[in-house]
User: What shape does this take?
Amino acid sequence: MGTVYSPQAQTWSPCRESDSGNLQGVIGYLPANHGLTLAQNDVIEMVKIPSGATVMDLILETGSLGTSVTCAVGDDGDTNRYIAAADHSSAALTRRNQTDKVGVPTTYAAGNTIDILLEGGNPADDKAIRLDVFYINGVDVTP
Assistant: This one.
């Protein structure tokens, strides 16, 4: 198991800070020609999320990752916080499902990354992976 990084999650890559309450979007993209060797149980840190951000929604899109490959999307506190074991053996698009926390947005007290965990089988190395994350900052989201 290893950790790889999309260009948007590198230590030098800034995340946008906002206290205006506007919806922000950040896209993590690992192109098909990324040159990495991916393996089952690898974690891909896709995008940075700033302190105080509340993740409202996200969308994962991949090429055909190969037989039995599933993807979980979460963070270092819960690897499947947003998406759990979504089948991406064929090209697929999966939207946040938060199966264990339906309707409860996640607010980050400290900056973090939104990550993809590659599960179920060894993924193809030549497929693009994209993660769109939408969050707000500085707004009370208590229902």
The CA atoms of residues 65 and 89 lie 5 Å apart.
